[in-house]
């Protein structure tokens, strides 16, 4: 009943509807990991896939003992799947990589070598995004320059979620109470010793992107509000600016009144109403974003639910007596 020894390396892969990409990914990843000659595990996090991903994973797992499958009960999003993987990974070093081979897994060897030199974080940085669509490239460009402004200079541009973390960095990350972590911003913020490897972003090996515009907007909004109170301050400044403007408009109106120039004034009123309406809406919207976040933080709901973990199942088979069972309800 001994607990399995922690492997040197864990590779965490968030997976959502990747039935076509998975076999190709495994085919390319496995020789690389085997070639390192160290103990490893691959933690495939099935993020509530609705296609045949679950069956494909089970099949792959039967042929690859190091593959561990963690299933989330429902689709919780890329970052939540990553969180689940990071919490569950046991390795001394943990690499996170997408399931679609856009990030070349060969770089893991280089990352591991750098980590062994003493770096806690080795970030994969894309030096060429020509394989992404024009839309993806331009939205990503806008995203990174906005993050640059909000979070500070040290956010590496075009650094996605392909990176290696040391055990210390993983423990630091997983100890954070964030409900919706955005790792590409949090990781540099931790302040661990870090370096990067560059690579060319490749074409998606199969299937289509699982990041439609709605999820990209979600990620951007999470990134801004998670990481900075700047938008709230923006609302304050806009509010102050509006007050100043309103003051001058008031003076102007009073003067016009005294001069007896009683123009209908429809346009100025209309402009003012629209303008202040807009200001209020923007401010209320921003406040709502934070209030919503406070609400979910107070609720304390986890970002994901583990449906099963093949590593746990293995434990259950080994020691059934121990794992049964405390009464479900107390009090
Ligand atoms: N993914 C996920 N849950 C989601 C969306 C995506 O686990 O809700 C996974 C997906 O399977 C892939 C990774 O996150 O391994 C990145 O997604 P994708 O490649 O579609 O994003 P893109 O590279 O187009 O930005
Ligand atoms: Mg991709």
Structural class, judged by helices and strands?
alpha/beta
How far apart the termini lie comes to 32 Å
**Which architecture of the largest domain would the CATH scheme give at its second level?**
Alpha-Beta Complex
Radius of gyration: 25 Å
- Count of individual helical segments: 12
Number of strands: 8
Walk me through what this model shows.
- The chain is an alpha/beta fold and 331 residues long.
- It folds into two domains: 9-208 and 302-330, Spore Coat Polysaccharide Biosynthesis Protein SpsA, Chain A (Alpha-Beta Complex), CATH 3.90.550; 230-299.
- The chain contains twelve helices and eight strands.
- The protein has an eight-stranded mixed beta sheet, sandwiched between helices.
- The protein starts with 8 loop residues before the first strand and ends in an 8-residue tail after the last helix.
- The relative contact order is 0.13.
- The structure holds uridine-5'-diphosphate (UDP) and magnesium ion.
- Uridine-5'-diphosphate is lined by residues 14-16, 18, 47, 75, 77-78, 81, 98-100, 102, 209-211.
Q: Which tags fit this structure?
A:
8 strands, disordered C terminus, binds uridine-5'-diphosphate, elongated, binds magnesium ion, alpha/beta
């Amino acid at each position: 009943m001994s607990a399995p020894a922690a492997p040197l390396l864990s590779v965490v892969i968030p997976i959502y509807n990747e039935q076509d990409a998975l076999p190709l990914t495994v085919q390319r990843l496995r020789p690389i990991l085997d070639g390192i000659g160290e103990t490893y595990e691959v933690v495939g996090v099935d993020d509530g896939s609705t296609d045949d991903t679950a069956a494909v994973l089970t099949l792959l797992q039967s042929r690859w003992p190091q593959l561990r499958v963690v299933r989330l009960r429902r689709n919780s999003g890329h970052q939540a799947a990553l969180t689940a993987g990071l919490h569950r990974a046991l390795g001394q070093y943990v690499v996170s990589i997408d399931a679609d081979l856009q990030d070349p897994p060969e770089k893991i060897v280089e990352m591991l070598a750098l980590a062994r030199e003493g770096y806690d974080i080795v970030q994969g940085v894309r030096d060429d995004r020509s394989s992404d669509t024009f839309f993806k490239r331009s939205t990503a460009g806008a995203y990174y320059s906005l993050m640059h402004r909000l979070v500070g200079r040290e956010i590496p541009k075009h650094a996605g979620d392909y990176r290696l973390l040391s055990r210390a960095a993983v423990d630091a990350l997983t100890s954070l109470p964030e409900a919706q972590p955005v790792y590409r911003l949090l990781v540099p913020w931790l302040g661990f010793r870090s370096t990067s490897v560059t690579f060319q972003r490749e074409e998606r090996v199969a299937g289509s992107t699982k990041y439609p515009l709605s999820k990209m907007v979600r990620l951007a909004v999470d990134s801004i509000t998670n990481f900075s109170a700047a938008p709230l301050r923006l609302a304050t400044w806009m509010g102050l600016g509006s007050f100043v403007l309103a003051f001058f408009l008031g003076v102007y109106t009073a003067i016009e009144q005294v001069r007896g120039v009683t123009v209908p004034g429809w346009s100025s009123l209309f402009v003012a109403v629209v303008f202040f309406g807009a200001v209020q809406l923007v401010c209320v919207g921003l406040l709502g974003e934070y209030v919503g976040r406070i609400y979910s933080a107070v609720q304390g709901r986890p970002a994901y639910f583990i449906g099963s973990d093949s590593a746990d199942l293995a434990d259950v088979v080994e020691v059934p007596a121990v794992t049964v069972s405390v009464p479900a309800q107390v009090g």
